[in-house]
């Protein structure tokens, strides 16, 4: 009797949690197909007018490509730095190791407003005015902790005897790193890169301090749009982003398996 009550309670709690997570998404998707200016759910009919509307708005399209470019380069550089830092932290013992690790983790600890203001002050003091590079460098700093955490988790689970066997069999350190270590930490690398891309793409606070007239990211553009307009176009943008996120997850599942990625996090 107690077991059945416990199972029912567990099922009920799971249903409540999933409902809390997915009902807002369903509402947003439904509103994006509304044929009217009213943001109501369920919509009074179905229409693609708002998807056409945002595709016709050059500022939305430009901001989308800005976000993609910035997120791509930020996640790529953060991944490379994350590999090197993770190897140093996990494999070597040296003075100030904990302090250095905490410095790399600091963007997670500090409020993003503080990080944004600090970066703005730094770039202003050194007189660096390339808005593209400012934005990318800012996003690299914000995303590095996520790649380090994911890759470090993979490194801790690697059996070092496999690398030692490779070296004993005649492979040099570079060949061992390429053929043995990289495949073993691939789930952590992919998880870190995906997290970095998503964090960068969704970032608002740091972007607000570092963007220029031609480098407005999509989240910032949405926020500015909502100051003057309330219509289903924002829901249509959200639906597109939800679709792209699902596609990304499916690709990750295809490559390394979603279970491996989730286990690292």
Protein traits:
disordered C terminus, mainly alpha, 13 helices, MetI-like fold, single chain, 265 residues, 79% helix
What features would you describe in this structure?
The protein has helices at residues 2-32, 49-56, 58-91, 97-109, 112-126, 131-156, 160-168, 173-184, 186-202, 205-210, 218-226, 233-255, 258-264. It is mainly α and 265 residues long. The longest helix has 34 residues, at 58-91. Residues 258-265 have low confidence and may be disordered. The protein is globular. The protein is built from 13 helices and no strands. The protein has a single domain, classed as MetI-like fold.
Biggest beta-sheet profile: none
Distance between the termini: 36 Å
CATH superfamily: MetI-like
Instruction: Output the CATH class name.
Output: Mainly Alpha
- Total number of domains: 1
- CATH-level-2 architecture: Orthogonal Bundle
Could you spell the SSE succession in H and E letters? HHHHHHHHHHHHH
The count of DSSP E runs of length 2 or more, i.e. the number of strands, is 0
Determine Rg (CA atoms, Å): 22 Å
**Counting H and I runs of at least 4 residues, what is the number of helices?**
13
Q: Strand portion, in percent? A: under 5%
Please state the overall shape, judged from the principal axes of the Cα atoms.
Answer: globular
> What structural class is derived from the secondary structure elements?
mainly alpha
* Low-confidence segments: 258-265
Summarize the structure.
With 265 residues, the chain is mainly α. Helix content is 79%, strand content 0%.
Give the helix/strand layout.
Blueprint: H1 2-32, H2 49-56, H3 58-91, H4 97-109, H5 112-126, H6 131-156, H7 160-168, H8 173-184, H9 186-202, H10 205-210, H11 218-226, H12 233-255, H13 258-264
């Amino acid at each position: 009797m107690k077991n059945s009550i416990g199972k029912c309670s567990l099922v009920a709690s799971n249903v409540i949690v999933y409902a809390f997570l997915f009902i807002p998404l369903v509402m947003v998707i439904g509103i994006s197909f509304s044929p009217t200016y009213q943001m109501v759910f369920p919509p009074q009919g179905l229409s693609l007018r708002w998807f056409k509307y945002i595709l016709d708005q050059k500022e939305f399209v430009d901001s989308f490509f800005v976000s993609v470019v910035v997120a791509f380069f930020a996640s790529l550089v953060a991944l490379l730095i994350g590999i090197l830092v993770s190897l140093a932290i996990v494999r070597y013992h040296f003075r100030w190791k904990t302090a250095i690790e905490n410095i790399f983790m600091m963007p997670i600890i500090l409020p993003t407003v503080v990080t944004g203001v600090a970066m703005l002050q730094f770039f202003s003091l050194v007189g660096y005015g390339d808005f593209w590079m400012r934005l990318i460098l800012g996003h690299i700093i914000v995303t590095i902790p996520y790649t380090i955490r994911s890759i470090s988790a993979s490194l801790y689970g690697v059996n070092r005897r496999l690398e030692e066997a490779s070296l004993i069999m005649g492979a040099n350190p570079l060949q061992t790193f390429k053929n043995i270590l990289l495949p073993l930490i691939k789930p952590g690398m992919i998880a870190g890169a995906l997290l970095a891309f998503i964090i960068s793409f969704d970032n608002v606070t740091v972007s607000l301090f570092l963007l220029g007239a031609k480098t407005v990211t999509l989240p910032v553009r949405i926020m500015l749009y909502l100051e003057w307009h309330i219509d289903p176009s924002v829901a249509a943008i959200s639906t597109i982003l939800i679709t792209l996120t699902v596609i990304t997850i499916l690709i990750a599942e295809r490559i390394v398996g979603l279970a491996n990625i989730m286990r690292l996090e």
